[in-house]
Design goal:
globular, mainly alpha, 5-stranded mixed β-sheet
Length: 645
């Protein structure tokens, strides 16, 4: 058993490497059509692999819209495109081996060895954890990143999922998760986001080395890899590292455009900006930023102003074309291209003004601190009150603060670490100097301002942090404090490695086959036992409504999110105090069972409980909901009376 499990993990890694090489080859063919060849092996592989993943995601999206999302069809897609780009594939493989040979020729010193050790440690630990089945720390993956991809694959196409507003987000990167799941491998799906973290770190080094110096690149890469949040994200099936990667590559391409004056780099910036916006709505901001950047007077050899206007419009048009399919899909399904946002402007199907307000109010809870809200306090609060900027304490009472040490490494892995605050003087110094770091600083500050105004979730800061790292590293060199900056970054990186060791150790048995998959999930995910019961004991046509719970990835039956905050499907306002109206609606929807996560669902004694909770508990009390499963983790499954079990 352990040997088979280990082989499966190695196969997933091998599949990921093959798909990465294939994707890079497809992108190399595209760049060849543009007549562009990035400088150096590292720069080529970074741009090609990232662009290749995006192209692959868009191709799978097209298959989904054509309703041919079958594993065999996806495999044929890979085969056909690999045949088309077989020559480029040989070049990609050759470049990869050349890169490995170059590493062996490096003249190592103590600093480089320490930095390499920290980078390798973070990467290996993140890789091990990414191979483990997703559990409670991977909530959004189980709720929609992986779960919606699984539903698309199950139905062999992309369709309107009315109970989940999240299913109408841009999903370019999640299409890669669909690819991984089509191979029957959750590990392969998760490896794509791990790969985004690795490529992102490499992109920070490559961009810094090209436009500043190699020593700046090493320090900047160390700063990024030492961010605890980045290390944790690389173990999940989220999308934030992919967004950060595409946004950083957009800036990278624009710096190359400013340096060389080659409009092809502006087109690459349009491609990456479009892929970013096709992965997350907040990345739409990069499209106007790229437009202004291209028009801004610079050393571009094109020189002619009319040519800059043409280049800017072409790049923006390209970005819009790449991103648009997701927004068009959302408009067709919901009549709102940015659903569920901007409800006051566009409206939206299965949404309401009350739901929109509740959604916005919940977002505004992130970053809330008991006292100072001033932007001046932001670096301090992100460092010492980091829990307020993530799910651990964002929704807690204003006066509640986490203790200095919670005993959970994951709490600390959700932080940005100490370097942003420690190196703030370097950022301020960078503002006073002209140079290539200035546009990086401007773009990152614009992103931080947008983040501050919208939703202060730490994860959404990753693109700005990736752009600030080269600024801080370069400033440290300019003011002759590089050794101190390296020492501080090494210390922060070592702390991240320690946190990752604590975080990864519990999954070692399941990753290496010493613990059964089901046993690990039983002890690590509170909803798994209920999900297993549903899959084994409920009839195949027995749909289940989830209350206080959204993680449906492991549920093998039709399900819906039934809490009113997730959609406006269920007309709770018209049901009054009659639970039979709710049960009748659920029956008509094909739901025969109800799952309640009591930890996230209001107690029946709570007078302020919403109508949904009161109706459910009334139905339980009058035996219209009959308990068929109860777990010590306070998750219960009920059968709706009147339907066969």
């Amino acid at each position: 058993m352990s040997f088979i499990r280990l082989v499966r993990q190695l196969v997933a890694i091998l599949e990921f490497l093959i798909i990465t090489a294939y994707a890079a080859a497809v992108a190399r063919k595209l760049l060849g059509w543009l007549g562009l060849s990035p400088k150096g092996t590292g720069e080529r592989l970074i741009f090609e692999s990232a662009l290749g993943f995006g192209i692959l995601g868009m191709l799978i999206f097209a298959m989904g819209m054509l309703e041919v999302l079958y594993p065999s069809w996806i495999l044929w897609l890979l085969v056909v495109t690999a045949v088309i780009s077989y020559r480029e594939l040989a070049g990609v493989i050759s470049d990869a081996f050349d890169g490995l040979k170059a590493v062996r020729k490096i003249k190592w010193n103590a600093e480089m060895a320490i930095i390499a050790a920290i980078l390798a440690s973070v990467a290996v630990l993140a890789l091990v954890r990414s191979l483990a089945p997703p559990v409670g720390d991977d909530w959004d993956s189980l709720a929609y990143h992986l779960a919606i991809s699984k539903l698309f694959l199950k139905h062999h196409g992309i369709y309107y999922i009315d109970f989940s507003s999240h299913s109408n987000f841009p999903f370019t990167w999640e299409m890669l998760y669909t690819l991984g799941l089509s191979f029957g491998s959750v590990s392969l799906a998760k490896l794509f986001h791990f790969g985004a973290g690795v490529i992102l770190t490499g992109a920070v080094y490559s961009m810094s080395a090209r436009h500043f110096s190699r020593s700046t690149g090493r320090l900047a890469a160390l700063m990024v890899a030492g961010i605890p949040l980045l290390a944790w994200e690389a173990t999940t099936a989220y999308i934030d590292l992919a967004v950060a990667l595409y946004l950083l590559l957009t800036v990278y391409a624009l710096l190359n455009f400013s340096e060389e004056g080659d409009k092809k780099w502006a087109l690459v910036a349009g491609l990456t900006a479009g892929l970013a916006a096709g992965t997350k709505m907040t990345a739409l901001l990069m499209i106007p930023i790229a437009f202004v950047w291209i028009l801004w007077p610079n050393r571009a050899k094109s020189g002619v102003r009319s040519l800059r206007w043409k280049t800017a419009f072409t790049a923006v048009l390209l970005a819009a074309v790449i991103a648009a399919p997701w927004y068009v899909k959302s408009y067709v399904y919901t009549q709102n291209p940015v659903y569920p946002f901007a409800y006051g402007v566009f409206g939206g199907k299965n949404w309401s003004a009350e739901t929109a307000k509740a959604y916005r109010d919940d977002q505004k809870k992130f970053g809330r601190v008991p006292d100072a809200q001033s932007p001046v306090m932001l670096p301090w609060n992100l460092t010492f009150r980091f829990a307020r900027f993530n799910d651990y304490a964002a929704r807690a009472e204003p006066g509640l603060e986490l203790p200095a040490f919670t005993g959970s490494s994951q709490v600390y892995l959700s932080s940005v670490g100490p370097l942003l605050l420690a190196f703030l003087p370097l950022v301020l110094f960078g503002m006073l100097r002209k140079g290539k770091h200035r546009p990086l600083l401007i773009v990152s500050c614009v992103m931080i301002a947008a983040w501050y105004i919208t939703m202060q979730n730490t994860r959404y800061l990753l693109p700005a942090l990736a752009m600030l790292a080269p600024v801080m590293a370069h400033s440290a060199e300019l003011i002759k404090v590089r050794k101190a900056a390296v020492a501080a970054s090494v210390t922060a990186g070592a702390f991240t490695v320690m946190l990752m060791l604590m975080f990864v150790w519990p999954v070692v048995p399941v990753v290496f086959g010493m613990e059964a998959h089901d046993h690990y999930l039983d002890r690590s995910l509170n909803i798994y036992r209920a999900s297993s019961f549903v899959n084994k004991s409920l009839p195949r046509d027995g749909g289940i409504a989830l209350f206080g719970e959204t993680r449906g990835f492991y549920i093998g039956r039709d399900y819906i999110w039934a809490d009113p905050g997730h959609n406006a499907l269920i007309p709770y306002d018209s049901m009054g105090s009659d639970p039979e109206k709710l049960l009748g609606w659920l029956r008509n929807r094909g739901m025969s069972y109800v799952l309640v996560n009591k930890a996230n669902f209001p107690d029946y004694r709570d007078e302020s409980a919403p109508a949904s909770a009161k109706l459910i508990w009334q139905a339980v009390g009058n035996r219209r909901l009959k308990e068929v499963f109860n777990d010590p983790s306070d998750i219960a499954v009920y059968r709706i009376a009147g339907r066969s079990q």
